Write the structure tokens for this entry.
Amino acid sequence: MALSRFSSPSLALKSKIFARSLASITPEGIVDGSQTMLHLESRFACVCPSCYGKFSKQKVATSHESDIKATEILKETTNYLKVRWCDGHHGIVPRTPRGYYGPPPVVNAIDKYYKLSLRHYSEIKVWDEPDENVYQFWNYEDILTDDQAMKDYLEHFMRYGLVFLRNCDTATSPEKLMEDLHLTPLINPIFGKVDPVIHKPNPENVAYSAGTLIQHTDLSYNTPPANIYGFMCIHNNVHGGESTFRDQYSAALQLKATRPDLFDVLATTPRRHRFNALKMRFWHHVNEDPIFVLKEGHLYRIVDFMSSFDEYHFISHIDLETRKKWWEGYQLYREYTQDQSKMAKIRLNPGDIVLADNWRVTHGRTAFSEGPEIKRHMYAFFLHWNHVQGRLLDTNIDENLELDEIDEQN
């Protein structure tokens, strides 16, 4: 895979400001202040024109001999080292975040948003009971025309897993509205990019009923499940029909605090979610994850949609004692999940859009009643996390600015 100049590959210099002492070459690599780059790392970090595409800003040289050695430091500037290696190549090695990632707007965006956009647990705000932050609304026109308002909106979404938008044009499709915000393309699941959620008599999908929808994540049978769930209100004058949301990290942590043994079972036992549309070819989807997916010991993704549980696989592949513990843990976890006092409840009005982190915040609905002139019409859609991430990290700068100091060295 090609690596973008502004990505953070494992061999790239870390976002640590080097001391400005003279760099030197040792048997291990290049010592620059308190930082040591292995010889091989220094060669992979080279950003000279022959190692990076001038226009693509992607790594061109993607393999080097393991015994490559830096042999001479030809020049030092504030942000770069000019280095010669034993294979005769001489190039440019960044020594600061500014040197590797780009001008101050880029570095500032990385400092502020990088960990959050990568879903680092330390950056999010787990909410147990919804407060005014959870219910905060933005105006569509504001985030469309004001870049900082857009970043505040997306930052809030990533921290809380939930964000609301008002005054969206109901005559415009959510796909077009998201496109104008540079958050597309939408995910295209079996229900289509934009799914009209309207009450139907005797529906095959419970989402189209008028009954209560319990808390759940969506597309749990996809590998991986869709990152972001979107919901837009077109018409809503029914009695009831409130949208409900629950921070599942809070429910999971509640289980961990009360029964850590059961938390561990839900975090280690694989559970298949399966969807097979018998009337449609090529739509047999299966995902296998624990209910709680952990990363570095912290919650990273929750996959929980009971309607798509593959019961046969679970019974036939998981031993009896583990299944007993699993069901004990899952039932207790679901009690915490369905605690009404912990849910964010809101009646969506025409022109409202909600985005929910489908790996963290479950959604549901209270029951409602309809009549001849009483309707509830919504649109459901899904976004890719990386498109939201890219919009948050975007700096809208002239990329040629970053070349100034490099050009001076050539």
